[in-house]
Structures are given as structure tokens and as C-alpha cells.
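WARN retry 2 of 3 for item q-0093 after timeout on previous attempt; input resubmitted unchanged.
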Amino acid sequence: MNDEKQPLLTGPNTPIDNAEVQNVELVASPSIHTSPFKDEKTKKTEYNPTTERYLEYPTSNFDTLIHLLKGNIGTGILAMPDAFKNAGLFLGVIGTLFMGAICTHCMHILVACSRELCVRNQRPAMSFADVVEDAFAMGPVSLRPYAKKIRNMVNIFLVITQLGFCCVYFLFVATNLEDTMRFFSINLSVHSYLAMLFIPVLALGMVKNLKYLTPVSLIAAIMTAWGLVVTFYYILQDLPHTSSVKAFASWHQLPLYFGTAIYAFEGIGVVLPLENNMKTPEDFGGWNGVLNTGMVIVAALYTAIGFFGYLKYGDHVSGSITLNLPNDMLAQSVRAVMAAAIFLSYGLQFYVPMNIVWPYIKTKLNSEMALEYGEAMTRFVLISITCKYFK
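OK item q-0093 returned
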């Protein structure tokens, strides 16, 4: 509004000497009674970013829920019993539910900020970095010069975080395959499994659209559910009394608990991409929306697996609950299906860093041939980084 020129009240073009000055009352015309500020508010309320999105393959509410569950339920859930060991049984329950509520609240804030800034700037959708940049650019005057730097910093952190998840997924699948194959007397090194997994992971990472990843995420969710059901089958048998484990751990163990629990809630990076690709994005928020429904399921599963896993195995619980399961065929199936589920989740985690890196690289390419093959080469290089990291 500062750049808008205000109307000037001017006198006659030629000076009039000794003219009688008359007091004239200015009456606003009904047609121009609305102030510029009201016009801006009307303009903002008229613009609906969700109706301006033109998606070739929009995702349904169910698709988004499945992606949200798979974006949050990863390798971290298997480490929750170990996290409870570092917090204590009572503090682990309270802390996990509290962190789940905080994470959900932050996701709601992120989505709300994105929608408000979309209306203000009349843009159909915004990425994580777009939201941060515009929030700084339209925020306090002292912070506005740092908008571009903050945007780059957020992008760098997101790429490092999401590629880090991809690295962990790669290694998790390879190590679980190694353990499972050893049960069948097949002894290969973890590097051999990393090499064998590279082509399937590369094919999964080449999927460009979230709509095509929905069946993959659905199969992964079913596998994860099977693995958790069998895990609960083992850990709910012959449970000891709650007095057999610590209610509160020592203070120096709490950082280990918070580190593991925060890592488990790993889906903040996929929130805006999921909301931006929805057919009905207005269903994402709300008390019974997709976000709350998914995060309640996630927090309940984390709390349950942590509580009963720690209660069952106590201080002998391993970094992954699957390592405490007996060495029989049913328990081996848990390791196999969880490894397969994490493998199928690779594409969703890789979607975020690719969407950050590729637009930057795209601006550096000029020829049509470079643009045609550039995206595939970018995906190949990034996936190779997540694999070569362990070699």
C-alpha cells in the first residue's frame, strides 16, 4: 500500500487574488466509499488458491493419507522401544504424545502460512522454501533483507535431511536382507546387497508423480501393518509388570530419547508437497482432516510400540525391535516385509529433494537435449549419492 499514490486536492489552475475563501464540505460518493484497504481485503477473499491449481494427476484424500502415513512411519518406529529405554516408561509415553502434538501443530502452522501467503501473493501453491522466503520478506523490516538467504538455507537443510533419510533407508534394507538371507545360509556382505538394490531403487526414484507412487505407498503401508501386527504378537505375550522397568531414566539419557523420537517423526518435509497435490486440499486441515487423522495414527503407533517393546525386553531391548524377536520363520518375515516396506518408501522420501534440486539445475541448462536428459541424470546422480555413501 505504500507505493499507491493518494489523490491530491488541488485549487484552480490560475491564481485568484482577493477571492473569498469558501469552506467546501467534501462528501464521499457511495460508489467510491470503499477504502483501498477494504478493496485489498475483498481481493484477498475473492482469490482462492486451491481453485487456481491445475494438476494433471491430483491425489485423493485416501492417497494423501497413505502418503502421510508412509512419510512418517519409517525406520524410526522400530527404534521407539530403545527410545523409551532412554526416557523411562512413563516419561516415554508423555514425551512421545507431546512431541506428536507439537509436530502436528507445526504442520498445521506451515499449511496455514502457505495458504495465507498464497492469497496475499495470488499464487496457487508454494513450497516449503517459498513460504519461508515470503514470510521473511513480508515480516519485520529488520528481517526482510535475509529472506533469500533463509530460503537457500531451508532448501539446503531439506535436501540434506531427506537425502539422509534415503541413505538410512538404503542401508536398512540392505542390512535386513543380509540378516534374512543368512537365515537361509546365504552369506553375502552388506555391500553386495547395496549393489543389487541400486537398480530397483533407481527405477523407483525415476517416478516423477505422487499419483503414481500411491499404489507403491499402499503396498508399503500394508507390509508395515503386517510387520507391526507380528511384532505386537511377540511383544504382547507374557508381559511383565510395569514395576520391572524404570518409569524415569537418568537425565543424561534424555538427549538420546529426544534424538530418536524426533527422528521418528520425519514427515515434515512432505507436508506441503502432499497438500499441494491434493484434489481437495481443503480436506487436509480441520479436526477430522487428513493431517490430524494421519498424525493421530502415527503418534498412537509410536507410543504403543515403544511402551510394550520396552516393557517386554527392558534394558535388553535393541536399537531395532526386530533384533529382539526370536529366530524363527515368522519373525524373519517381519524383517523381510519391513525391509520391503522401507524400500518402497524410498520414492516418497526422494520426491522432496528432487523437487528442490531439479528447478535450480534446470535454470542452468539451455539446449533442448540437456533439458530432455537433465532430469534423469539428476535423479541418477542423487540416488547414486545415497548408495555410494556407504561404500
